[in-house]
């Protein structure tokens, strides 16, 4: 069941570009500010209705600080993703989230002592080769893709360190940034149409639901398995970019994607054969 929750989270995120295409004329930073503020408002209402959702004994300075760090990583990844979507470059987001699982697997090995064997090492080499290929063919670094992937992988790894329950982690990831988000909204939204306000408010549940699902999944699912589930999201992105929005694909993107997908095959086959015992509980 925990694996199912994680899978569903990435399916939702895979379809999110459809929503953001409807508000592509709005500044990504303003979209982010609205998502943070309205998410915090929803969480405050939920907490008011059911105060027991937040375990006060877990609300230490360390846990709140880690939740804030996780929130920073999520917000940076998220604004990069929104930017890629609104400039009709879903392909960059797709490449980013194909790279992310390899980074997550590597972080699981580095910080949580999860098992990494030869196929996973080969997958990491292939990912690096994919980036080098992109640079050689397109004469530039895929900075947007790398930024999105690095920040999101860091978010997932940081979540593993937080000793808060599911609601507490999500609550502090948003509430600490709510004042800043409100300030940005009040100073940068004078020309927003009434209809767009509704769409901006809708970004809150659109993000809260998959974050909740992923947070529950992370309670019992090792990063090695999460790294495989993550491939659901960029596959949806790739399908949207190619078949729905007909985005052009550069040679660098094309061959980088081939190499990254090859790294998936190398990594996941061995992972399915193994039965890792390491499970990190957050509760």
Polypeptide structure, described:
This is Chemotaxis protein. With 283 residues, this protein is mainly α. The protein has one domain. 77% of the residues lie in helices and 0% in strands. It is built from twelve helices and no strands. The protein has helices at 2-20, 28-49, 61-86, 90-112, 118-138, 143-159, 166-175, 178-188, 194-218, 223-229, 232-244, 251-273. The longest helix is centred in the first third of the chain and has 26 residues, at 61-86. The radius of gyration is 19 Å and the shape is globular. The chain starts with a helix and ends in a 10-residue tail after the last helix. Mean pLDDT is 88; it is low at 271-283.
SSE inventory with pairings:
Blueprint: H1 2-20, H2 28-49, H3 61-86, H4 90-112, H5 118-138, H6 143-159, H7 166-175, H8 178-188, H9 194-218, H10 223-229, H11 232-244, H12 251-273
Domain EamA: 4-133, 146-268
Keywords: Membrane, Transmembrane, Transmembrane helix
Protein name: Chemotaxis protein
